[in-house]
Amino acid sequence: MALPHGRDDSVGRNAEPARRFGAEEALALRVAIVTSEAVPFAKSGGLADMVGSLAAALTRRGLDVTLVLPAYRCIVERTDVAATGMAFPVPAADGIERTEILEGVAGKNTPAWFVRADRFFDRPGLYGQDGGDYEDNADRFAWFARAALALLARLGPYDVLHGHDWQTGLAVAYLRLQPERYPALASARTLFTVHNVGYQGLFDAGVFPSLQVDAAHYWPNFEFYGNVSYLKAGLTLADRLTTVSPTYAEEIGTPEQGYGLHGVFSERADDLVGIMNGADYAVWDPATDSFIARRYSAADPAGKHDCKRDLQQRLGLPPADAPLAGMVARLVDQKGLDILAGALDALLSRDLQIAVLGTGDPHHEQALSGFARRHPDRMAVRIGFDEALAHAVEAGSDLFLMPSRYEPSGLNQLYSLRYGTIPVVRATGGLKDSVKPFDEAAGEGTGFLFEDYASAALVQAVDRALDCYRRPAAWRRLMANAMAQDFSVDRTAAEYAALYASLLDRAD
Ligand code: ADP
Asked: What is the 3-state secondary structure of 420-479?
């Protein structure tokens, strides 16, 4: 059977040596990225943005990148995803589940493959619905790990297998523990990226036998306070680890931020590096953004005013000139919603409008919606996932709020900088690495930061921003500084390319 993307099946199976040092022409490094989310196919948060845009940027650099995802319902329904005719059996916890392989293209020309098993993935959500996780997530993502490796072993060889977050911890683990099952991948080095240590893929220890891993590995690689952790499996068994900002790489080695895994991170400190995520400016740039009311740029910022009016109109806010603070987030504890709730009475007493777009924990959704109902002229809340509105909030807001309890990287503050929407952020993780405090006298800096995880500290930071907003020259300077920042995903891709090469002892 002829495979797409110029790969011939017989060549693919014909395990060429994975590393060909000293070849006259440098061969493209072959990277298989296994992930549970990637734009444009499936997204619940920044993981999808990062993986999808990183894969495309690596391809632009000349690497040979392949993506593998589960064939969720939202993917099967896409018109740009097609059946390949390839199908094979994959072990599941309770028998064998046959997979069919679908294919699509990410970015301009990154091949993406989808392993289909409708029993596991033909559902409305990625990991759960109605505020709860799917009960069989342990089985779903163990199966996905095996199916992804089995597929890659047919497509391979690859130089690097790159997994992301707990959903792919087992892919990394299986390749290390059972390489004989995936001969074409046996020489691949493994990289595992943790985007958020707060999500660990914890399951009842009773699932362990179904993982079909030698019991000797239970304690060192899987056990986490009496449970099984898919994240720990990836963290302890990958050749190298990354996380998504330099500050977060340090924070997760501490008991406060390591979520019980700080010991693992400390032990693997030499193998762990923090690489700041980057923004895909092909998607997030007010000069080219097709979702926004009027395009604008640092050189010609006039359109931002129209975007603000458009946002106010969409959200039913009065067309006031008061500063408008936006927020787009998964509405979960991590995002600082409790200190925001504690700050809202004070913030809503200021000359300020607030626009929130998000979805997540019902109690946060209800609390925010309650504020909006009580202050309809000041605050608007939209519950739901709405890509177009997310762009409109970035473009139409003056400030962007990210009072996160912790923030491994954060992408929204990077988008905000580009849109001249000044970030007001807690000094944690990637927020600290990407937003620099505005120093009006020196004319330097890009936003407002606060240290204490407290409502009062958030209010003070917003007050500093509002004070600056009242001085147009200072605010213009601040906006210009923000819009001049370069947090492009191409920089991120350059760092990953160098890391892949170092995994193979090869020059980038
Ligand atoms: P996290 O990865 O923790 O969710 P990030 O700031 O890194 O946070 O990335 C969030 C991404 O998800 C951004 O692209 C943001 O625009 C998007 N996003 C989050 N919630 C929504 C929503 N309700 N509607 C549209 N986009 C959203």
From this structure: CCEEEEECCHHHHHHCCECECCCCECCEEEECCCCHHHHHHHHHHHHHHHCCHHHHHHHH
Residues 143, 106, single domain; the answer is yes
Considering the domain boundaries, does residue 295 fall inside one?
no
Q: Kindly list the distances between the CA atom of residue 497 and the CA atoms of 59, 500, 506, in Å, as whole numbers in the listed order.
A: 10, 5, 11
* 390 in contact with ligand 1, CB cutoff 6 A: yes
Q: Which atom of ligand 1 is nearest to the CA of 196?
A: 3
231 plus 323 within the same structural domain:
no
Ligand 1, atom nearest to 334 Cα:
3
Domain that holds residue 408: 303-485
In this structure, the answer to whether residues 204 and 180 fall within a common structural domain is: yes
Does 337 lie in the same domain as 359? yes
User: Is residue 343 domain-shared with residue 259, that is, in the same domain?
Assistant: no
- Closest atom, ligand 1, to C-alpha of 47: 2
Confirm whether 292 is domain-assigned. Answer: no
Whether 202 and 318 map to the same domain: the answer is no
Does residue 72 lie in a domain region?
yes
- Other beta carbons within 10 angstroms of residue 72's beta carbon come to 22
Q: Is 45 in the pocket of ligand 1 (CB under 6 A)?
A: yes
Which DSSP helix (H) or strand (E) runs through 360? strand 353-360
* Under-70 pLDDT residues of the chain: 1-26, 506-508
Decide: pTM greater than 0.85: yes
Q: Assess if residue 382 is contained within a domain.
A: yes
**Distance from residue 329's CA to the centre of ligand 1 (Å):** 5
Q: How many domains does the chain have?
A: 2
Q: Does any ligand 1 atom lie closer than 6 A to the CB of residue 138?
A: no
Domain of 398, CATH number, reads: 3.40.50.2000
Question: Residue 418 carries which side chain, given as an amino acid letter?
Answer: R
**Angle 294-298-300 (CA atoms, 0-180°, nearest 5)?**
55
CA of 464 relative to ligand 1 center, distance in Å: 26
Cα 155 to Cα 4, 172, 173, 182, 329, distances in angstroms: 11, 17, 19, 11, 37
> 241 and 96, same structural domain?
yes
Q: Provide the pLDDT for residue 507.
A: 57
Residues 494 and 481 in one domain: no
- Torsion on CA atoms 327, 332, 336, 340, rounded to nearest 10: 60
Mutate-to-test residue for ligand 1 from 328, 389, 413, 433, highest number of ligand atoms within 8 A of CB: 328
β-strand 189-194 against 160-164: which pairing, if any? parallel
| Separation of alpha carbons 251 and 262, rounded Å | 9
- 38-76 pLDDT, tens digit per residue, is 999 999 888 999 999 999 999 999 999 999 999 999 999
